Amino acid sequence: MNEALTIPPGPVVPPEVREFAARKGVDRYLGPIIRLAQQAFPSSGLAVSLGQDAEDETHQYVALDIEAGGRTAKELLAGQRVWSGGIGLVCPSRQAVYFVLGWR
Fold first, then answer.
1. Which of 15, 79, 77, 18 is nearest to 45 (CA)?
2. Beta bridge partners of 49
3. Structure letter (DSSP) for residue 61
4. What is the spatial distance between Cα 68 and Cα 70, in angstroms, rounded to a whole number?
5. What confidence tens digit (pLDDT) does each residue in 46-64 have?
6. pTM of the model
7. 42: exposed, middle or buried (Cβ count in 10 Å: 0-12, 13-18, 19+)
């Protein structure tokens, strides 16, 4: 099998994340945003969870956490650029506030 054709499995999306996305009306963006994060950081693991703002407990969001261990600053910056350039293409800015990219 040609390795270039192998697509890594997507992250597990917990039911509470799917329910939150549906309540906020952003569920149709969940798949495209996960794919964007995978494109931005193709060799990194990705975890999807429900996050909560530390300063505003009422603000929740879908947290997309990239496994950053072993990545160089250059790789992380390149991925961040792909993410920043693509988020507006896959999700309107009003709804993008419900998706937060982070590292772990």
1. 79
2. 63
3. E
4. 6
5. 999 999 888 888 889 999 9
6. 0.85
7. exposed
